[in-house]
Each structure stands twice: as structure tokens, then as C-alpha cells.
Specification:
Helices cover about 45% and strands about 5% of the residues. Helix 1 runs antiparallel to helix 2, helix 3 packs antiparallel against helix 6 and helix 7 packs antiparallel against helix 8. The strands form 3 sheets. Strands 1-6 form a two-stranded antiparallel sheet. Strands 2-4 form a two-stranded antiparallel ribbon. The chain has a two-stranded antiparallel ribbon with strand order 3-5. It has about 500 residues and is mainly alpha-helical.
Length: about 500
Amino acid sequence: MKNLVKYSVVVLLGAQLVVSCKNFLEVSPKGTMLESNYYRNQSEAYNGLVAVYDVLGWQGNGYVSKIPAANSASDDHYAGGGSSTDINAFQVWSNYTLNAANGPQEELWRKGYSGIFRANVLLSKLDGVPMDAGLKSRYAAEAKALRAFFYFDLVRLFRNIPLLLTAVETSQLYNVEQSTPAAVYAQIEKDLNEAIPALPVTVALATEGGRLSQGAAKAILGKVLLQQEKFAAAAAAFQDVNGTPGTTSQYGYRLLANFADLWNVNNKFNTESIIELSATTTSAGDWGCAACTEGNHMNILVGPRGYKPGANAPDYVSGWSFNPVTKSLFDAIHFDPRNKATIANLDSLKAVGAADYEPGYMNTGYFLEKFAGREKNKTTGAGAKELNFGQNMYEIRLADTYLMEAEALLRAGTPNTRAAALFNAVRARVGLNPLPLNMDNLMNERRLELAGEGHRWFDLVRTGRAPAVLGARGFIAGKHEVLPIPLRELENTKLKQNPNY
């Protein structure tokens, strides 16, 4: 994770090896000589592990990362920004005009295989590192679980991908072929099942916040099984993570009493957090390499453009107006208790003269309150203020796994009192009365609870609802459930493009 330790020479070196590469197939030969004399002791092995974790919070070239990109593709947000070509990767996924050369796929592919490359290197070196056997086992487990996580994102984003478990020899660079999705999923499950027993049950948050525990790996496994419609197995994995609804689980997870506390930038690694993407205000990131900063891009991306507050207005930073909230989501959440902590209603502020802003592209007047940067949270250190916000992001949190277990039980055809209790515990946390558990109510609950956190597009695709919900945006069934294989990856290789692209 990004704030696990300060960057060392090896982490910077690893970042240069991966970020500078145009094609994942080029990574191995570029890194071979540079890695050959490393991993001599436990300290260097730890640095290598940090390099793997660092990819979790990947914010790539052109400000493309998974959460704002996936938000743009959902019915809850538009791409937004300053114009119809501003961060074009968001625009073309939002209106489903993406193709092999244009879209977020190159950056998301690079992220996944960068993480896999780093994990593979560490796993190949660990046996030869003189260090405590128990610690070595833990490092290997973390690397395997992280590799599984990266493969899970890749297979659900692209479906047809290469499965690489070792470095690719130079002579084989252009002979790599795609594996079947079934083979990729089998390897993901194998990695996770091997990793879980060697991971700690819990981690010391003060010193190890952001490292994987057994609970985090089981949460990933539950998502992997749910994606494959292995509903009973998914429910069992999630039950281990969730424990008794409304209480503290064996891994220390518990829903926060106050939903709004989830978005307090100082409330890091709280009891609801299962996998958290770390950010810091102290990396001194600047415009020379926006992708190199350890700050959170999301805070500047989603803030209202040209914001001018009045005396008693919120202290939003003037941002770039990406991911404006659609009228559809606003109408759905407007009278829900989570509305105030989720959506910033700039049109209302403007209407009463409390603040002003400049409407961006596809402006609706509604912005993501969860992630809108605040003046009080700007860095006081070196670097560009816009690139050094310190708000962490959730990759998986407990309300998410509660609802996924309820979904698994429901879709398995075995809804029971536990499934209803999980579903209604999420509602009870914000003071809402129980509702009957069915797929419509469950999907609506996920939409309102997890708005803006990058889950909605994946939920619609996973449940087969995307064509109906996103058809008006240009979504074509049988095509847009996955991204195209990046054009650069197809040049002079054996990789084949996904259907209909």
C-alpha cells in the first residue's frame, strides 16, 4: 500500500521499469538485469513486496484509474470534465464509443500486468532470500493474493487475457497467447486458497495498515466466486468475513455507526475497511509526473469547476468537474439518509446565492460529495496542491461484502433470515426500515450505499442488467461487457481482439 513505507531505491526502480513500458510484454527483459542483484536479504524482499502493494493504488497517465473510469461508464455518472474530449478515456467509455485505440483499457491493462510482474518477480526470488521462514511465507502469501487481485480485475475487464506466472523469456515475447477465462479464474482461486492460511488473521493498523489479512483475501475470494456464479461457495466465503450481521466479525470488521464517518479523511483503516487504497499529502507530487504522486487524484477530478464559495458555503476545492452525478442517481438517493454524505448539490447552493461554480461538460449540478476535495485537506507541503490530497479510497468495505453475501444467498435460491439480516443491517445503519430481500431491492441498495465508489458498472454487468440500464448510453450486449484489448498489445503478437471490437 502506498503509505506502507517510504519509497526506497528498489521501489522507484520498479516503478520506472513498469510505468515506462508501453507493452507489458516488454517488462520482463527490461527488468531482468536490474533485478538480478537484488533480493539479497529480508529488507530487500520487503521493499519488493511494497512495490507490489503500490500498484493497488495505481493512478496512471492522463489521470486514468479504475474508479473514476468505471464511474463514467455507469448510469450514476457522466464522464464530465471541461469538454467532450477532456480525459478522452472517460468520455468514450461513458458514451460507449471506445475502440482498441481509444479508451481506458491501455492504462487498466498496464496496471494489472505491472502488479502481476512485480508479484511474479518477488515470488521467483523469495526462496533464495535468507530470512525467517514464517515471514517469508507471509510475503509469498501476500504476493499471491495480490496477484490474484490483479488477475481478477483483468479477467472481468477484458475476459480474454494471458496468464503469466513467471517472467517471459525474451525469445517468447511475441508468442504469448491468451488463456481461457476458466483457467484464469482457476489460478486466481488457487492463489487465494494457498495464501489465506499463511496470512495473519488481523494486522496491526498502526504499523501495518493496508496489508492483507485473511479476511481481506477471503473477501476477494468471495467476489471471485460470485462473479463466476458459484453462489453457495461465495456465500460461505463472505460469511467468514462478515460474521454475525451488526456485530464485530472474527477479523475485527464492523459497520461504522455513522455512514458519513466513512468519508472523514482522517478516519483511515476503520473497522469497516477491508481493502483500502492509501494516499498521502506528503509525496510532493508535481505536474512533471502526475502519475508519480502518492496523493489522491479523485479529490481534484470530481470537485466543481470554478468554485467560488460564499461566507458559509462548504470549502470545496475548485476542481475539474469529472463524474458529475446523473439525475437518475440524484432522484434515487435524494430522500435517502445517505444523500448528504454522497452528493454535493451545487445547483441548490447557486440558487440561494451561497456559492457559484462554472458548469462543466454534461453538468447536472450534482457532484460527488464523498470525494470532493476540501480546502482544509490540501497539503501544506511541497508539490502541486491539486495532486497531493490524502483521502484514502475503499476497494472493499464491509457494507459491500454484506450485500454481496445477501446476493449470493438470494441467487443460490436459498434466501434465509441471515440474508435478510445482512441486507437490512446496511439499511439500519442509516436509520432505514427493513425491506423484503429481492434482486431489485438489493441492487438499489448497492447503488445508494456504494455510489461513486466504482462498483455500479461491475454490478450491472455481473447481474446481466447492463444492456437494459445502459442501452440508451450506447451499450451493446455481447460487446461492452468487456473492454477491447489495447491496440498496442495486438501489434506483432498472438493476442486476439475481443469480439465485436
